[in-house]
Design brief:
The complex is a heterodimer. Chain A has helices at residues 12-18, 21-25, 52-55, 64-68, 95-102, 121-130, 142-148, 155-159, 191-204, 206-223, 241-256, 283-302, 373-385, 389-396, and strands spanning 40-46, 56-57, 82-83, 89-90, 106-113, 161-164, 178-181, 263-268, 309-315, 335-340, 348-350, 371-372. By secondary structure, chain A is an alpha/beta fold. Chain A folds into two domains: 37-183 and 236-396, Alkaline Phosphatase, subunit A (3-Layer(aba) Sandwich); 189-232. In chain A, strands 1, 5, 6, 7, 8, 9, 10, 11 and 12 form a nine-stranded mixed sheet that branches. In chain A, strands 2-4-3 form a three-stranded antiparallel sheet. The longest helix of chain A has 20 residues, at 283-302. By secondary structure, chain B is mainly α. Chain B has a two-stranded antiparallel sheet. A two-stranded antiparallel ribbon of chain B has the order 3-4. The longest helix of chain B is centred in the N-terminal third of the chain and has 27 residues, at 67-93. Classes of the chains: A alpha/beta, B mainly alpha. Chains A and B meet through α6, α9 and α10 of A and α21, α23 and α24 of B.
């Protein structure tokens, strides 16, 4: 059975959470607005800390190649990066993003970070998704609070949010109603988790290591003759390209409906590239290919709605500017925010570039943050949905009044 | 099979109590308190009134049927299914009703016959999971699982077993897990579900009235499994003549049928018409012909046989201590069994007091049921559709609930579960559970509250370096400290 032919169906959990709101949509009047704009916002959380310098490489910075070593992007060689402007180039695994950028429908905010400066994934993700000034006590997410602060009766509020995946990402958890949808498949973990468990077993429990290795090998052999991503056994793990594409496709189909949700959150895993990260090809490039596929699925699946859509991909922090001893990168600070969609005023890399000389790096190791991720998100929420700076600085991102919304991100 | 490389010896006392004996820690359990008096912690559970029973006053269990009602419901459903099949077959023989304007009502499709047995089975599974999830620390539920596997029936045998497997456990196992072995044995072999599962309703004494009339004879299945699996153990000295003779004694032990000729349908009845008359020998002892009392007397004797003591002691030590248990631990349990007249509470206490239980490395692997329960205890309620999700996990792990491959039950050795497919499946389960858990705390904190200070540096590091809470939780659920017991 091909999942590509499958119509997304909402999970039982979704129905419980919304009290049957999905069915209620059918009785609402068709939406219409004077300016004919019908904005949508899709938030993709990249868990594990994305290496911004390998996603959008500052190929014009003289210190970049030296720091990022063998995995640095380059405009020459077998797999040249795709130039965005005279200074930055995007990983060649992302041709869709490059095309959107050229047509003014994608942008990059570089050297960005949340307000969180330690390097714990769990805490960093809490801060990123909760929108709170620090970690701890995170029960609701900023996207849900944004939804809750829209005027009651607004068509965006009525349609509720959409959470893609078997669990609801923190970013969209909260009081406002949220529908859940997940590809109908037993989630199979991607290679990232399997490798970590194997590594642990190799150190602690060789008997279990041998058994698990055999089981994984058998699984791979069974799938070996179906390497084409579309034909592959569906994977719900979302730390692999096929799963990312598949979940975006389902979400786009639900959001394209006139009465479908306008706001959605997805979480993709696997970005914690400590070992053998790869550059233009390899592990990170495979994941970026999945993210690029998700952009493509949204562009195609949203059809006429794409022009009013903003997709934003965010991560908890970046990675070290200098590669480590295992041809990967460790937890860092500044990274990229990727924006795509017909609503995005694109074709721009927005960066107050801090430079990569030792003294310019944050704590002599990370890309120094010069933009606040919250400013980007606030700008999107303000321009797409009309939320005021006061609400954004108090309710949506508490205690962030000093972080001004980044304006003019939207057409 | 080889033990994990660097298992701490002696193992952490809290983990012995919670994992070797219990069903695993929950985030609220205080490992420090458990470690301070682990034996007292385990014994406290044994002291609770009716601790092994599914509480009937709990409204969640109000809908559970006793075995008689469950079997009758299954019998009725079987009749409905048969009627529906017959009507369908008859309809297929008729010319199409659509051509007949007078009879359009007959062309309506019949509503499909409900799967009564599957519904009952699901409710029973739910009750078993509820009990296991709430137990502190679950040593008694582990004993229930042990005895239920020792005296197993299989839902795959027939719908009537699927419908009554849960009731069988509640009626014949649970009341006796802290009682007398002989009482459990008698309850099990009298139970209609067991008699049906091991074909005893088909066994007819050749010299009985029914046997002479119908020219039919013995089915040795139940007699053989009682001797080989339930009591003495294979190779303990009984011979084929004992099996044949014992099968004769057991003739007439059956389940009353749907028509109710012998008694209330679905209940145990002794059918004198099929009972092999006269005295019989078993293990060199003569049992005079006395109807149902003859086999009861034999069961009471073999329940107290030294081979039975050795068999039960070995299995309990294998389950709770090690695949190849220290011989002195088996000897001590066998001695307690004999001296206490098969008092299973005394056996449970002997296990708790056994030094080997606290000194042997935690090298066994949790069975799939214990793994799924431990996992659900660790994460708490989640979005999964229960009990279907857990039942599916058990099925793909090779331990479908109340459905072992044969009357010898599921295996109880680590290498049976640490298979390639088995471990890959556990990885899938851990990942699914972690992804469906909505509110995951900090995995480092979960590690501290579930495994505690004896955790290996590698496990601790792997979890703290996880790239997401979901991955950290999955790693915790896959860690050797979580898999081994």
């Amino acid at each position: 059975m091909s999942l590509l032919c499958e119509t997304p169906s909402l999970s039982r959990r979704a129905m419980l959470m919304t009290g049957g709101a999905l069915f209620a949509w059918a009785f609402l009047p068709r939406f219409a607005r004077a300016d004919n704009r019908d904005p949508r916002l899709i938030v993709i959380v990249l868990r594990g800390a994305l290496d911004g310098l390998s996603t959008v490489g500052p190929v014009g910075d003289p210190d970049y190649a030296g720091l990022h070593g063998d995995i640095a992007l380059s405009l020459s060689g077998a797999n040249p990066a795709l130039p965005l402007d005279g200074f930055f180039a995007v990983n060649p695994a992302m041709p869709v993003f490059a095309r959107l950028f050229k047509s003014g429908q994608a942008a990059v905010v570089h050297a960005a970070a949340t307000g969180y400066r330690d390097r714990s994934h769990f805490d960093g993700q809490d801060v990123l998704e909760s929108g709170l000034p620090g970690p701890g006590n995170a029960a609701t997410g900023w996207l849900n609070r944004a939804l809750a602060n829209l005027p009651a009766g607004d068509r965006i509020t009525k349609a509720g949010g959409l959470a893609v995946g078997p669990s609801t990402p923190l970013v969209i958890r909260g009081a406002a109603p949220v529908l859940g949808w997940a590809p109908q498949a037993l989630p199979t973990p991607g290679d990232a988790l399997a490798e970590r468990v194997l590594d642990l077993y190799n150190h602690r429990d060789p008997v279990l290591a041998a058994a698990l290795q055999k089981g994984l090998d058998a699984d791979r052999m069974a799938m070996g003759d179906q390497l084409d991503g579309k034909a592959m056994k569906p994977k719900g793990g979302l730390d692999n390209a096929a799963g990312m594409r598949q979940s975006a496709q389902g979400a786009a189909r639900l959001m394209a409906a006139d009465d479908g949700p306008r706001i959605a959150a997805l979480a993709f895993d696997g970005w914690d590239t400590h070992v053998n990260e790869g550059g233009a090809t390899g592990r990170l490039a495979n994941l970026l290919g999945g993210l690029d596929g998700a952009f493509e699925e949204f562009e195609q699946g949203l059809g006429a709605r794409w022009k009013d859509t903003a997709v934003v991909a965010i991560t908890e922090f970046g990675r070290t500017a200098r590669i480590n001893g295992t041809v990967g990168t460790d937890h860092g600070t500044g990274t990229v925010v990727l924006l795509a969609g017909g609503a995005i005023k694109g074709g721009r890399v927005i960066a107050d570039w801090p430079g990569l000389k030792p003294a310019q790096l944050y704590e002599q190791r990370d890309l120094a943050p010069t933009s606040d991720v919250r400013a980007v998100l606030k700008g999107l929420l303000a321009d797409q949905f009309g939320l005021s700076a006061a609400v954004l600085g108090d309710k949506v991102f508490p205690e962030s009044a000093t972080v001004k919304p980044m304006r003019d991100l939207v057409v | 099979m080889a033990a994990p490389v660097s298992n701490p010896v002696p193992p952490d006392k809290a983990l012995v109590a919670l994992n070797r004996f219990g069903l695993g820690a929950r985030p609220g359990d205080e490992l420090g308190k458990v470690a301070a008096d682990p034996r007292g912690y385990l014994k406290a559970e044994l002291k609770q009134q009716d601790i092994a029973l599914i509480p009937p006053d709990d409204p969640r269990n109000a809908g559970l049927l006793d075995s008689t009602a469950a079997i009758q419901a299954s019998m009725a459903a079987a009749m409905e299914r048969k009627t529906a099949r017959d009507e369908k077959a008859a309809a297929a023989m008729q010319p199409t009703a659509a051509a007949d304007p007078a009879g359009p009502a007959e062309t309506k499709p019949k509503p499909s016959v409900p799967r009564v047995e599957a519904d009952i089975y699901r409710d029973e599974a739910q009750a078993r999971f509820d009990k296991a999830l709430a137990a502190t620390p679950g040593f008694v539920e582990r004993l229930v699982g042990f005895w239920s596997n020792h005296f197993c029936v299989s839902a795959a045998k027939a719908p009537v077993v699927r419908a009554s497997a849960g009731a069988f456990e509640r009626e014949a196992i649970r009341p006796f897990v802290l009682g007398r072995f002989a009482d459990m044995l008698l309850a099990v072999e009298h139970h209609p579900t067991m008699l049906f599962y091991l074909d005893n309703q088909q066994s007819i004494g050749p010299d009985s009235r029914a046997g002479k009339r119908r020219g039919r004879g013995l089915n040795e299945n139940l007699a053989r499994e009682i001797l080989e699996l339930h009591t003495l153990g294979v190779g303990s000295g009984y011979v084929q003549a004992d099996v044949t003779s014992f099968a004769g004694m057991l003739t007439g032990w059956t389940m009353a049928g749907r028509e109710g000729r012998l008694g209330e349908p679905g209940t145990f009845v002794f059918n004198a018409n099929t009972h092999q008359p006269g005295g019989a020998m078993l293990l060199g002892k003569a049992y005079p012909g006395a109807g149902m009392g003859q086999a009861e007397a034999a069961l009471n004797d073999i329940a107290r046989h030294p081979a039975t003591a050795q068999h039960i002691a070995t299995k309990l030590a294998r389950h709770f201590i090690a695949d190849d248990p220290p011989p002195q631990s088996v000897a001590r349990l066998a001695s307690v069994f004999t001296k206490s007249d098969g008092d299973l509470r005394a056996m449970a206490l002997a296990l708790i007091d056994m030094p080997e239980a606290w000194s042997t490395p935690l090298a066994k692997l949790r069975s799939p049921f214990d793994y799924v329960v431990a996992l659900r205890r660790a994460i708490g309620p989640s979005a999964g559709n229960e009990p279907q999700r857990s039942l599916r996990w058990l099925a793909v792990s090779g331990e479908p609930l109340w459905q072992p491959p044969g009357p010898n039950g599921f295996p109880d050795r680590a290498d049976a579960w640490a298979s390639a497919e088995g471990m890959k499946t556990r990885l899938d389960i851990a990942w699914q559970a972690a992804r469906q858990a909505d509110d995951i705390g900090n995995p480092n904190d979960m590690l501290a509250s579930l495994i505690g200070t004896s955790v290996s540096a590698e496990t601790s590091q792997a979890i703290s370096r996880a790239e997401s809470k979901q991955q950290g939780l999955a790693l915790l659920l896959m860690a050797p400290e979580f898999q081994r017991r």
